[in-house]
C-alpha cells in the first residue's frame, strides 16, 4: 500500500523532511502501525514516538491511532502548536 506522508511544524525539522511517499509492508493497516513502522526505521525516526500530543490526519480529517489506512491516503503528522 502506497501512502503520501506529510510532516509539519517542529516535527518537520526533527525528521528532516516535509513529506515522502512510502510503500508500506503487509500488516500495517492503521496510524498506530504506521508510527511503529516509521520508528523502526531508526535514525531520526524514533523522535516521532516521543512527540507529546502528536496529532494525525488522514485525507485532511483528524484521525486516531486506530484509523484504518487505504492505498493512496494522505497522512499528516503534526505536533500541537499554539498561536498568539
Detailed description of the structure:
The chain has 84 residues and is α+β, with helices and mostly antiparallel strands. It has helices at residues 9-15, 31-39; strands at residues 2-7, 19-23, 55-58, 61-62, 74-78. The protein has a single domain (2-78), classed as Beta-grasp domain (Ubiquitin-like (UB roll)), CATH 3.10.20. The chain has a five-stranded mixed β-sheet with strand order 2-1-5-3-4. Strand 3 (55-58) and strand 4 (61-62) form a beta hairpin. The longest helix has 9 residues, at 31-39.
Could you give a quick summary of the protein structure above?
With 84 residues, the chain is an alpha+beta fold. It has helices at residues 9-15, 31-39, and strands spanning 2-7, 19-23, 55-58, 61-62, 74-78.
Labels describing this entry:
single chain, 84 residues, alpha+beta, Ubiquitin-like (UB roll), 5-stranded mixed beta sheet, 2 helices, globular, MOCS2A, Beta-grasp_dom_sf, nucleotide binding, Molybdopterin synthase sulfur carrier subunit
Order of helices and strands: EHEHEEE
Number of strands: 5
Low-confidence stretches: none
Level-1 CATH class name: Alpha Beta
CATH architecture: Roll
Beta strand %: 25-35%
What's the main sheet like? 5 strands, mixed
Could you tell me the CATH topology label.
Ubiquitin-like (UB roll)
Average pLDDT rating: 91
How many helix segments?
Answer: 2
Tell me the number of structural domains: 1
Distance between the termini: 40 Å
- Order of strands across the main sheet: 2-1-5-3-4
CATH superfamily: Beta-grasp domain
Radius of gyration: 12 Å
Helix content: 10-25%
Backbone structural class: alpha+beta
Shape: globular
GO molecular function, one term: nucleotide binding
Pfam family, one: ThiS
InterPro entries: Beta-grasp_dom_sf, MOCS2A, Mopterin_synth/thiamin_S_b, ThiS/MoaD-like
Family: Belongs to the MoaD family.
